[in-house]
Amino acid sequence: MSMFRMLSPSRAGRGKSNSVQVDIRVPSYGSVFMPFPDPLGNPDTPRVDKELFGDLEVFVPHEMGRQKCKAIRVGLRTSCRLDMARGGPEEDVIWQGKVEVRGGTSDDGVILEPGLQRFAFTLIIPGNLAPHDYHAGHRVDNVLWAEVEGVEDNSALSWFARRTSLSSSRGTSPSRMSVSPTRSGSSSPCSMSPPPSLSILRQEEHLPLPPSYDLSQVDQPIPWLSGNQYVERTLILIYNPDPSGGVSNLDTRVDTAASGIGPLTVHFTAEEWSIAARLKATVTLHAPSPAATIFYSRVSLIQNTSITSPRDGKTVQVDRQFPLFCSGTQIPSVDRPDKTVEAIWRGREAGGQDQAELGLDGQGKLPNDYEGRPTTLEGVETPIKVSHLLRLEIFFSIHGEDIAGNPLQDNGPGELRVLRVDKKVILPACFLIPEVLDLPIYEVDDDCPLWKSAGKTCSMCKTPSSQQFCRTCPPTALPHPRHDHPAKLVGNSSGVCPLCSQRVTPAGRGEWRDCACGLLRKDIIDRMKRISLEDRDEEEEEERRGRQGRAEKEEAEGRR
User: Fold this and answer.
1) What pLDDT shows up at residue 40?
2) 249, 276, 284, 516: most buried, per Cβ within 10 A?
3) Contact 428, 528 (CB under 8 A)
4) Could you give the CA distance from residue 96 to residue 71 in angstroms, rounded to a whole number?
């Protein structure tokens, strides 16, 4: 899944131990489930935006003492990098919004106490914002960033200051504390979401310190923080094509007919319909012509990508075909294949013995998210729009006819034809829904497959498997091993057991060795279906109670 591969811990600048450290914490590993955009809705109806909640962690080493900064900011930037074949890639900021907190005056600043402090923030994400996407030479990124602004370091411009300068120069920043920011030039109506916010949530000491009784410190000036501290992390927006937020599956059919082939039915099904899903197809040719020869059939996923430059509207179209499964040996390489070419079905007038209907069954796996991309829903504003269709191709010939159905002079083998049957589909990004993904991070089930395979205790730190994850960091943090072991026990000053770390941290390419929730794909699907059934039962129970209540009310009124 792209969300687990792309969503890594925030890339903070953690240099020397005596420097201020900044980190961003957001729920669900940085994946945001967006509300279903209604393309047929009333244009005057307010757009439904999404609220993103999170924590900004600022750690000030105790040896630095109290520090003063100019401002603390958190923002979301959506940008695109498109190769429009004009001498180099084009980079543009599609949308950005931010919240910040400043001191009362330019001299006051924001006071940062020694230890760990957390600032709760709320960002408003437009309900039609472009989701994360990538193709060869083209990509859209959603980056969540945070900055603690100090005074300029005259000795050397820090990396964070340079990064911040580059980021701010890429586009025009919205006004400070703007309410419900919207895309520039968007015709979408204003949302009814509350304004974004940034406020101090709580302060925690990293280690308990003895109280200080030096009253002279009260009159000492608080030094300004030198330089800017910057951090960012990837955010992935996921649109569920099911308006109710339920399970995405596929069950569709096409009934059509063609000259020489006769009537046919194509039935596509998938229990869990998404990127990398398994598709089943049944093709039935009810009454092929006795003069027909069916050589080969193929079912493919066709992906059309339309890339539009936000600068001048130039559009590039890219089509890709992903064969899923086929029937038959091979596509004939001659224009008029004869009886020597192997066929699936050959009628009596074409020199064969077949005369009944032809049924073809097959299944195949859709491409993963390295190649296949989800369908762009109507109403979503993005420079990269993706559409999909399922295509059935049947290669056949009619004895004595050319491809147009005209008779051949020699009345010999017919010319090779191709019948294409297309069915438009919406391919979801992921079969997960919020109730399934938003699992408790620190609650471990003994029946979890991850713990079953892990054994009872770690051979190095002697910690039971159910206690190897950290339980002290905030619940918005990514799962990580506990870091409170004695240094002598684990052989390092960080307090992290190397053996436990190998099991729960991302592998070399940013992929998790084990799913962060410890569930197999089958377990997640079963849980997803169970949640949907529970919701359905609750709705039916509420409806039943409503009918019963109305009946009792009518009966009481009748008695009067």
Assistant:
1) 61
2) 516
3) no
4) 18
Mean pLDDT of 522-529: 62
Backbone angles phi, psi at 265, to 5 degrees: -130, 135
Cβ burial, residue 501 (10 Å; 0-12/13-18/19+): middle
What is the per-residue DSSP string for 438-502? S--SS---TT-HHHHHH-SB-TTT--BGGG-B--SS-TTSPP-B---S-HHHHTSTT---HHHHH
Would you say 70 and 100 are in contact if contact means Cβ atoms under 8 Å apart?
Answer: no
CA–CA dist 267, 423 (Å, integer)? 10
Q: Which two tokens stand for residue 444?
A: 């471990």
The number of folded domains in the chain is: 2
CA 410 to chain centroid: 59
Residue 348 DSSP one-character state: G
Same domain for 285 and 212: no
Beta strands in 44-104 (DSSP E): 50-60, 67-69, 71-82, 90-102
Compute the C-alpha angle 478/126/173, nearest 5°.
90
Which candidate, 22, 26, 108, 114, places its Cα nearest to that of 68? 108
Max avg pLDDT among 202-216, 337-351, 424-438: 337-351
Interatomic CA distance for residues 161 and 149, integer angstroms: 9
**Which token pair is 297?**
């059939």
Res. 117: pLDDT tops 80: yes
Q: What is the CATH number of the domain that holds 352?
A: 2.60.40
Question: DSSP string of 390-431?
Answer: EEEEEEEEETTB-TTSPBPTT--SPPPEEEEEEEEE---S-S
pLDDT score for 289: 94
Residues 306 and 194 in one domain: no
In single-letter form, the type of residue at position 305 comes to T
CA distance 151 to 226: 5
Domain co-membership, 209 together with 133: yes
- Supply the range of the domain harboring residue 309: 273-415
Structure tokens at 471: 């339980």
Phi-psi region of 442 (alpha: psi -120 to 50; beta: other; left: phi over 0): alpha
What number of other Cβ atoms are within 10 A of residue 18's Cβ? Answer: 10
Q: How far is residue 436's CA from residue 454's CA, in Å, rounded to a whole number?
A: 23
Q: Is residue 395 part of a domain?
A: yes
What are 133-191's pLDDT values in tens digits?
988 889 999 999 999 999 886 654 444 444 444 444 444 333 333 333 333 333 344 44
Amino acid at 176: R
Burial class of residue 145 (count of CB atoms within 10 Å of its CB; 0-12, 13-18, 19+): buried
Q: What is the reported pLDDT for 146?
A: 95
